[in-house]
Amino acid sequence: MRADAKKNYDHLLSIAQKALLEQGADVSMRDIARQADVGVGTLYRHFPTREALLDALLRSSFDDLAGKANELNGAAETDKALLVWLEEVIAFTHAHRGILEPMMSAIEDPASALHESCVRLKTAGASLLRRAQADGTARPDLDGAELFDLIAALAWLREQPAHAQRAARLFNVVAGAVLKAP
Amino acid sequence: MRADAKKNYDHLLSIAQKALLEQGADVSMRDIARQADVGVGTLYRHFPTREALLDALLRSSFDDLAGKANELNGAAETDKALLVWLEEVIAFTHAHRGILEPMMSAIEDPASALHESCVRLKTAGASLLRRAQADGTARPDLDGAELFDLIAALAWLREQPAHAQRAARLFNVVAGAVLKAP
DNA sequence: TTGATATACGGAACACCGTTCCGTATATTT
DNA sequence: AAATATACGGAACGGTGTTCCGTATATCAA
Description:
homodimer; mainly alpha; Arc Repressor Mutant, subunit A; Tetracycline Repressor, domain 2; 9 helices; about 0% strand
């Protein structure tokens, strides 16, 4: 990779990161290029599609979340572990408004650049769920995919501006349906 | 209203109805105009905004759903009544892919053309919920707005193509959290 | 029936979008 | 310094929602 290319790549990543946090995942590619003082062609050279850019932005965070699940798998009570992790995932998606839709399409489309990252997240949640189920603290008739759906639904709700207040209560309602002991 | 205008209005409504069912609520305004063999200006003359068009398309159905809630308020067991109505609302939104997002913005924006219709829906659900709560069949710590959110979240899940299979199970999980006796 | 007028129509135009393409510029290598 | 590989910028394409206005037509009066 040429030196100027590497510089632009890094610069674009950091600008895009900021734009993602400030304007949401539906920020226009042109906007990102503009804010980075770069032609739109340069942006597309480095990130051939919007999903590729999102993947570059989210991959490490997703890995962090998956890692957190592994930590929690060792330490805390099984039900509390699941709860804490759910809250963290939802807080993350809340901080990155608009990433839910690309995530939902990616999770079922192996060709998507985001696919792998999403599957890792789903798998991490599934392992926490299994442990809680083995422990008898989570209802047994749920699988990882369904848990992922429930997380996504809660995350989607929290994305709706006016519903932020109710989000915490609804989280408890749904979590109460997943876990046996409230 | 001039005769030709009335004719175009009715024609546009029926074409838009078909387009809404076949292509979803994000069908382009140009597409609707094209399918109706009408200039895009004509479409906008009759429906000054996309939400106005949606309102014209959905209002009567929403009224039907609200009416259904009133019927159910009279007849069936309170928990079953709520359940049946929830399923009907979700089935309706499922048949009209894409209406959820405009509904969610409309419910909190009194200026929206869709606002009134959405509030009617929310109110209808709230009355069913209250009756079930008074009867002791629904958990008491929920209000109409929260129920509406839960319905929306479930409806959103059912809109995700690959998740249709899990939708029924997840409906039961969430419904089980709202109702006391499964 | 003809003429005036109010109303409605069609579609070009504007500003945006994601994405592609290619002539030009620059970094690297010889 | 020349050759070459690589990267850059931004015009261009086909799409979007929406606005605007010159033209056509329905309606009403004479």
